[in-house]
Amino acid sequence: MKALQAKLPALLEKAIETAAQRAVEKAIELTPPTGDDLSGTHTRTGEMKQHWAGDSQTKPQRQGDELTAVLANDVEYASYVDQGHRMDRHFVPGLYINPATGQLEYDPKAAGDRTVGIVVGTKTFYVPGKFIVDAAKEEYSKALREELRKLEDLLQ
Fold first, then answer.
1. pTM of the entire structure?
2. Which of 10, 58, 115, 134 sits at 20 to 30 Å (Cα–Cα) from 29?
3. Tens of pLDDT, residues 95-105
4. pLDDT tens-digit readout, 44-87
5. Which DSSP string do the residues of 16-65 spell out, in sequence order?
6. Residues 44-56: b if buried by 16+ CB within 10 A, e if exposed
């Protein structure tokens, strides 16, 4: 029993690390693009999806008696994807519809001229959030409970 007690801190660290890794996997799974859906900004690059693994800290850090793992995504727009955001109509200088082709075009030289441009916006005034962090936290809790049950079985 004493040998097992000596191993307990390392076993707890491993349980937390495993749960944190599962949370990161869940966040990656829910971050666009998912499946064939490539709608929305930055979904083709997958930049936000890639940042979960690099920005998160799954190996627990000890601070006194506490062990801490971190789920993070430092991409500038991550909170907007996660929590949702408004879509306002706004003026874009240099953007215009070419009368010859009927195509939407952008002229960076005209961007400084406030007389050339159009107001853009969307029919959708609010883009709902994906709540990726909430789902990842739930996955973390579920995985940690599973890992702690395994430890409990080991202790019996």
1. 0.76
2. 10
3. 888 999 999 88
4. 678 999 999 999 999 999 999 899 999 999 999 999 999 999 88
5. HHHHHHHHHHHHHHHSSPBTTB--STTTTTTHHHHHHHHH-EEEEEEETT
6. eeeebbebbeeeb
